[in-house]
User: Fold Thiamine-monophosphate kinase from Sphaerisporangium melleum.
Amino acid sequence: MLGPGDDAAVLRAPDGRVVVTTDLLLEGRHFRRDWSSAYDIGRKAAAQNLADVAAMGADPTALVVGLGLPADLPAEWLDGLTDGFGDECALVGASVAGGDITRSEQIVLGVTALGDLGGRAPVTRSGARPGDVVAIAGRLGYAAAGLALLLAGRTGEAFQELTDAHRRPRPPYACGPGAAVLGATAMADVSDGLVQDLGHIAAAGGVRVEVDPDALEVPAELTAAAAELGEDPLRWVLTGGEDHALVASYPAGVRLPPEWRVIGRVTDGEGVQVTGRVEARGGWDHFRD
Assistant:
């Protein structure tokens, strides 16, 4: 209802409830200016917050952004960042409602996203029950492969789709509210790796999640990059983060649209089991070496 220009913005909350999430991005840890343009950074910062809102089954409505910027940063860089935020928000009908800016020795972005549930119950991590199926929407492993390629200096055209995936993720936003309508019992944004984020669902629900690796898609792009770097592409799919796919559990028998593919099931027990693989842990943890 009222955007930037006053001391605060005014937003409509038709549902009467507001979904809210926030992320902090630091230069050198979450992005590098020699790898990503200001526009890319804006798109990525917006995407990872908007995906969290979608993972609750809500429609994103707005972002507020806090920026710490070096004094010598060109104004054109800030213009690119702003354009990136705006274009990513436009994908979901959201807007940048305002924010704050201060001087900082390094670039710091604090992004808060807001969303509306549209009368639906939020889809939390804790609702999975034995007998549910587990399904994924979106891409897995692309951003992790892209990061590995960038670290190795393999930035040629042959791998551009993967390096672009690290710079600018493509979350399946519409699948979040869609999952709520379909009756998803639990859902999470895959930001830290499939195994780790499924572990959050398992722990919250007091259940075990069994993943069938044969049901996971390993695209040719990942296979080619893995051959180039001597890596296992399935490892990227299982433990790579920042693609911001959505993973959800559904009651058995629910007819899922093609955007969702079943990759496992929920059983009694605890933790995550990847059938046929010793490794059943992995993913990003900010405080683990």
About this structure: The chain has two domains: 19-116, 133-274. DSSP finds eight helices and ten strands in the chain.
